[in-house]
Amino acid sequence: MDVFDDLIRGVRAHGSLFGSSVLTPPWSLHFADGAPLTLCAVLGGAGWIVPEHGEPVPLRDRETVVVRGPEPFSFVDEVGTRAAPVSCGQHCAVPGQGGTRHRRGWHDSGDADVTLIVGAYPVRGEISRRLVEALPGVLRVDGGGTGDGVLDHLAEEVAIDRPGQQVVLDRLLDWMLVCTLREWFDRPGGRPPAWWAAQHDPVVGDALRRMHAEPAAPWTVAVLADRARVSRSTLAKRFGELMGEPPLTYLTRWRMTLAAEMLVERSSATVADVARAVGYSDPFGFSAAFKRVRGVNPSEFRRTATA
């Protein structure tokens, strides 16, 4: 278990393919559904992603962008296009609305300039929210990378309706999102989040994997250092340099993130149940730690979040 595995597990496509829209200029598709993450890829042409606030981003053949919501954005043939905006979202699934002929597939024997493949992602829980917060408003990845093969599969799958197609599309979209985020985090000259870069360090990466695999274990700096076969001072120094905080401070914040998700997702769990699940035998000590990190006690957090 690594940090990325944990953070992305709540980001899953589920019936979320808006469509594979074949477009001829001029066009202007306006996405205003407020999805936390939207993945867009084009085949056989180019266009522009225009966020509501921010600079337009070019999207060329076989390139992919991920747009962070909930702010709306548009996909246009050119900046300042004369095309009237067509609102796209959960109902953008028929040609009259600028979308696809069928909800789960599209086929047209005519010529077209651009095929746009779009997938929207819900983001469940406190854990995956940490991933979303590490992303810019719009990120773009060039074609020619590991996602190209997935894009080909997506293009083939949306061309015809088949039994079980939505499940296949969902999994392909998940695969495409993972490939896109990996390439963006690893891009030359990029500034990935600290947890992404630290995973590649043999010492800090080992400590992170252990804390994520067993967050409730009674970890100490000495135990983590012993598992990594380094001294306590070495672990503390390298962890602080790469992560910007001590190991046990990170562990406490991660435990409180897990606890916050459990408080919302497991309505039958008591505060004491959640405390034990994240490594606290004393619910009062857990409540104090939760309030120190989250600003409110567990019961107040649950009431507000579920409301």
From TrEMBL:
It comes from the Bacteria. The keyword Nucleotide-binding does not apply. It holds the Pfam family Cupin_6. PANTHER family: HTH-TYPE TRANSCRIPTIONAL ACTIVATOR RHAS, HTH-TYPE TRANSCRIPTIONAL ACTIVATOR RHAS-RELATED. SUPFAM superfamilies: Homeodomain-like. GO terms for molecular function: DNA-binding transcription factor activity; sequence-specific DNA binding. This is AraC-like DNA-binding protein. Residues 205-304 form the HTH araC/xylS-type domain. InterPro entries: AraC_lig, AraC_XylS_family_regulators, Homeodomain-like_sf, HTH_AraC, HTH_AraC-typ_CS, Tscrpt_reg_AraC-type_HTH. SMART domains: HTH_ARAC (SM00342). Keywords: DNA-binding, Transcription, Transcription regulation.
